[in-house]
Each structure stands twice: as C-alpha cells, then as structure tokens.
Design brief:
This protein is mainly α. It has one domain. 59% of the residues lie in helices and 5% in strands. The strands form two sheets. The chain has a two-stranded antiparallel sheet with strand order 1-2. Helix 7 runs antiparallel to helix 8 and helix 8 runs antiparallel to helix 9. It is globular, with a radius of gyration of 19 Å.
C-alpha cells in the first residue's frame, strides 16, 4: 500500500480569498489550451485565426463549465442542491460532470459555429485535442481534494484517502488512472493525429469514442457516487451509462465521415 500524499486543497490565499487547486486546474487548463491553439493557428496547422481561436476557446470553456456544473447538479445530487440552492455556486468545493460539460460544450460551440457560419465539426476538431489537458489537471485536482476515489482494493499501489467517507480502507487511486488515460493517453493520440489535415469530424468522433471507453473501463474500479450507487442490480454505474451514448455518437460520426469521404461509384 502506498501512502497518500496529503496536500492542502487550498493552493494559496490572497487575504480572505482562498484559491483552491480545483479552480486553479480549470483556469490553467483553459490557459494552456488557448496557448497551444494559438501556436497552431499561427503555424497554419488549423484553419483559424488567433482571434477565432480565442473566441472558440471562450465559447467552449463557458459552455463546458456551465454544462459540467448543471450536469452534476441535475444528475448526481439534485436533492441536496434543491435543499440548498446557493451551494450550486460553490464550484470550488467540487461537483462537475464531464458528460454534462460535453453537452454544454456542444451547445456553446454550435452557437458559435452558427454565428460565424463555419462547419461545426471543423471547430470541434480543432478544439478536442486540447480538452485532455483540462481533464488531466482536473483529475489531479480530484486526487488532491480528495474526491472520486476508487473502490476498496489490495493492489500494491492502493491508498487510504483521508476523507472519513472513504472508510479508512485502501482504495484504487482511480483519479490517477483517469488522469493517465483521459489526460495523457488521449492527448498524445489526438495531438499526433491532428498534426496534419484529417477528414472533418474524424478527431471529434475519435475523442468521443476514446473518452467514453476509458471512462467506462475505469468505472469498474471507481467508487460510485454514494447518493446514486450502482444501477440495474449493482453491475453498472451512472458514469458508464453516460459514457455509452458518447461511444455510440463517436461511432456514428466516424461512420458519417467514412461514407462522406468514400468515392462515388461510376
């Protein structure tokens, strides 16, 4: 068993204002993504200007954050937030749904695409390679908080998380599994593939498939949310249920891309 490296969830304080790692992760992820896309725009890797990149990142980030928060409130903990509505604003305390964030991201990006009259999938193709940066930092913040720990385990790298709700038993550090798969592996795959032009929609479809698959796998060793538990007789989690539509949507996009790029028969 490894010793959990307890880290203060507050990164630093500015007078009465406490800056949490959780919030810092989101801000840093957005900033790094913006910088990476600006470099790509200047190098001509993506067909957008630096001004367009800034607008795309802004719309995508706002949609992702709002969707992530509302998704968590509505799907994972509606009862508690109805009893205390002001707690919805306390995002520094945690409580974000990635699947809700994807929906918010899609809505905001679709609105931007319509406004500038650019293909929706061309915009998402440009944005999805940087999303894993935010996922990596977000999962590390989950680990520091700590929250979203794994199921009890006796693997050599299991840890006892300090939160009393974790039960003082060794558990999978599932936050780190997700940081590796959703953050590092997904970033490497999408970043390499996006270095040269691809059929429009391919990167977006691949992102949905890979994230959905990675999340579905890790959910087997991740403790489900206490207020929801396991579904359908105790063999599937809410995270897995929400990941399946992502995988299906990604496959449909790839099918669409394949059919659209297939030469017509003569």
């Amino acid at each position: 068993m490894l010793t959990y490296p307890k880290i203060d969830p507050v990164a630093f304080e500015l007078g009465p204002l406490a800056i949490h790692w959780y919030g810092l992760a989101y801000v840093t992820g957005i900033a790094i993504g913006w910088l990476l896309l600006h470099r790509r725009a200047r190098a001509g890797v993506i067909p957008f200007t630096t001004t367009e990149v800034s607008d795309m990142v802004f719309y995508g980030a706002v949609g992702g954050v709002l969707g992530g928060r509302l998704g968590y409130v509505l799907v994972y903990n509606l009862h508690d937030y109805l009893a205390n509505p002001l707690a919805i604003l306390k995002v520094w305390e945690g409580g974000m749904s990635f699947h809700g964030g994807v929906i918010g991201f899609i809505i905001a990006t679709a609105l931007y695409a319509r406004m500038v009259k650019r293909p929706f999938l061309s915009i998402t193709d440009a944005l999805v390679p940087i999303v894993p940066v935010g996922l990596l930092l977000g999962r590390i913040a989950n680990f520091i908080k700590p929250e979203l720990w794994g199921a009890p385990s006796n693997v050599p790298w299991a840890m006892v998380f300090p939160d009393a709700r974790a039960g003082a038993v060794p558990r999978h550090p599932s936050q780190l599994y997700e940081a590796f798969l959703e953050g590092i592996v997904l970033f490497i795959v999408l970043w390499i593939l996006s270095r040269r032009p691809r059929a429009t929609g391919l990167l977006s479809g691949l992102f949905l498939i890979l994230y959905g698959a990675f999340r579905f796998i890790v959910e087997f060793v991740r403790e489900p949310d206490a207020q929801i538990g396991y579904l359908f007789g105790g063999w599937v989690t809410m995270g897995q249920m929400l990941s399946l539509p992502m995988i299906v949507a990604g496959l449909l996009i790839l099918l669409f891309v394949t059919l659209r790029s297939r030469p017509e028969d003569h």
